[in-house]
Specification:
Phosphorylase Kinase, domain 1, Transferase(Phosphotransferase), domain 1, 6-stranded antiparallel β-sheet, 14 helices, globular, Protein kinase domain-containing protein, Kinase-like_dom_sf
């Protein structure tokens, strides 16, 4: 199938009522610039146009090159993502004959328009915001765990294919190279972005392990930028490429990579970088998953906050709750901080700060567990008096008053006090 050029698509999308067959597209108009020309977002195999009108804006993806088994590929991807219902993907509709050019019918994809920057632009704008980068790392790990559980792969994980929506959530786009269970195709549509793919990847690699190298490289780069934002300027001074720190040349010769050498000097990254150097030489099917390489940037709440406070006050450490001990972000097993005790000391305590401060653990900074301030019970109708002559044993007993809630302010003050206190 021969696809139109970019200039031809720019003309077709300006008359959606004549060229498109889908009603959701024909009742909208393409967004244009100051000169009245459409503004497409260019990709490796398609142009994406934004259409505005009644209801929310939509994106229309028009293909610019031939993709093997396009119809069967997207039929399998669409069915799988509909069953999956993942928050990381954008629902879409594949229209096999969605666009007309003369007598030819061309396929297009209609999907929701996600308002937000790409991950590349977001990181460049927020490289000094360590909390934002840590949240991104947590979402990358969640995505890797979802892939591991359901056995799929995106195929081209790179910052240009990841959007950050208004709520700060990662949304993956461009599903041309995706692998899903039951896929009838045996080869990928492309080999992904060269700066995020293993040098050992070939056209025969098309399985659930397809994204492991890219996710490890992405998480390692975000972790390094969280610790040292200046690395982004140091290794991408022109801000013209699609990578953060690492490039294809770093994977080809990791021992001589200046970027990996700089990352290795950061606290807590010596062992992950050394392990990553070895991963560059492994085949894709032998690569570990992301959760086996890094720990989650997350802490855990105690079920007994007051007991934990008392023990923390006596011992100067927070005790991990049973079964929910989490690794400290940025620490490899056995690493120690220069200004505080080890990550897990002899008493079984879990270190929650690299700078010698000890605080109560929490799932995310600034949140309060549901058990601490539970919602009010639903109002109960007034109890009717028992009928005359009812035996006392059968009379309904009024429920005991609910226990008094513990104050949020008291817990916050205790956390703040423990955080400021330096323990011997």
């Amino acid at each position: 199938m021969r696809f139109p050029a970019a200039a031809d698509y720019n003309e077709l999308v300006q008359v959606p009522g004549l060229c498109f067959t889908d009603a959701e597209i024909t009742r909208r108009v393409a967004v244009t610039d100051a000169l009245g020309l459409p503004v497409p977002v260019s990709g490796a195999s398609a142009l994406t146009y934004r259409f505005a009108g009644p209801g929310p804006d939509i994106a229309v993806r028009c293909f610019t090159r031939e993709i093997p088994d396009l119809f069967a590929r997207y039929a399998a991807i669409s069915a799988f993502l509909e069953r999956l219902g993942s928050r990381f993907f954008v629902p879409f509709t594949f229209l096999a004959q969605g666009l007309r050019q003369g007598r030819a019918a061309l396929p297009v994809i209609r999907m929701e328009w996600i308002e937000g920057p790409t991950l590349l632009d977001f990181v460049r704008a927020h490289r000094a915001d360590r909390a934002a980068l840590r949240r991104l790392r947590g979402q990358v790990l969640d995505f890797a765990l979802e892939q591991k559980r359901y056995g799929y792969a995106h195929g081209d994980v790179q910052p240009r294919n990841i959007l950050v929506d208004a709520a700060g959530r990662l949304r993956f786009v461009d599903y041309d190279g995706m692998f899903v269970p039951g896929m009838p195709c045996r080869e990928p549509a492309d080999l992904g972005h060269r700066d995020f793919q293993s040098p050992r990847r070939g056209s025969g690699d098309f399985a659930p392990h397809l994204d492991r190298f890219a996710l490890i490289a992405l998480e390692l780069s975000l972790h390094a930028l969280e610790l040292c934002p200046d690395l982004l300027v140091q290794f991408d001074p022109q801000v013209q490429e699609d990578a953060f720190i690492l490039r294809r040349s770093d994977y080809a010769d990791p021992a001589a990579s200046p970027a990996l050498a700089a990352m290795e000097m950061l606290p807590g990254l010596a062992r992950p970088v050394a392990a990553f150097r070895e991963l560059c030489a492994l085949p894709l099917e032998r690569l570990p998953t992301l959760d086996a390489v890094c720990g989650r940037p997350k802490l855990a709440f105690f079920r007994d906050p007051w007991g934990a406070l008392r023990q923390g006050r006596r011992t100067g450490r927070a005790v991990a709750a049973p079964g929910v001990a989490e690794s400290v972000p940025g620490d490899a097993p056995g690493d120690t901080a220069t200004d505080g005790p080890s990550a897990t000391d002899a008493g079984g305590g879990q270190r929650l700060s690299r700078f010698g401060k000890w605080v109560l653990a929490g799932e995310m900074p600034g949140t309060t567990p549901d058990w601490l301030d539970p919602p009010d019970p639903p109002p109960q109708p007034p109890m009717a008096p028992p009928p005359r002559g009812t035996p006392p044993a059968l009379r309904a007993v009024a429920p005991a008053p609910a226990p008094r809630r513990r104050s949020r302010a008291m817990l916050a003050a205790a956390q703040s006090w423990l955080g400021r206190r330096r323990w011997p």
